[in-house]
Amino acid sequence: MKRPLLFATLVACLMFFATPAYAQSFGVRAGASANPDQFFFGGHYETKPLVEHLTFRPNIEVGFGDDVTLVAFNIEFAYWIDLKNKPWKVYLGGGPAANLYDSDSETDLQGGFNLMVGAQHRGGLFGEFKVGLIDSPDVKFTVGYAFK
Questions:
Q1: Number of C-alpha atoms within 13 angstroms, CB side, residue 32?
Q2: b/e string for 87-124 if b means 16 or more Cβ within 10 A?
Q3: Residue 143 and residue 127 in contact, taking contact as beta carbons nearer than 8 Å
Q4: Nearest Cα to 146, choosing from 59, 51, 34?
Q5: What domain count does the chain have?
Q6: pLDDT at 81 exceeding the cut of 80
Q7: What's the mean pLDDT in 63-89?
């Protein structure tokens, strides 16, 4: 891994784990993406609702494969929908992304945007599907666990 990419990844991880006191939860995630075709892992934190049902849920994902390393900084918001008397909640959302692509020939920072839909069990298990626009990966399938 090149030094600028390694430095950016370390700074991002330090910022991520230095969550502010108002953070309601944090989580871990892993999955697969298409274009680039990669396996990725990462983490997120989630604030208390900013307004009714709307939370701030930024995340960092590091992907490997397709001869490129991708560090995605996703600034996302989630709108939560309660399913009456069910242990699951559905969420919709999205937001901008800063994508740091590193290949053998170059390192490039590109902007993107994500749209997402997911479901989370009250125990913490969640699944998420993202569609990427501009220079984000085309699709991402994610599973993870949110700690309360």
A1: 3
A2: eebebebbbebbbbbbeeeeeeeeebbbebebbbeeee
A3: yes
A4: 59
A5: 1
A6: yes
A7: 95
Rounded to a whole number of angstroms, the distance between the first and last alpha carbons of the chain is 33
Phi then psi dihedrals of residue 146, to 5 deg: -105, 125
Domain span at residue 61 reads 3-147
Q: What average pLDDT does the segment 47-63 reach? A: 96
Tokens 């390192």 found at = 107
SS3 51: strand
34: Cα within 13 Å, side-chain hemisphere: 6
Q: What global pTM score does this model have?
A: 0.82
Residues 120, 91: Cα–Cα separation, whole Å: 8
DSSP-assigned beta bridge partners for residue 46: 25
Question: Which CATH number characterizes residue 73's domain?
Answer: 2.40.160.20
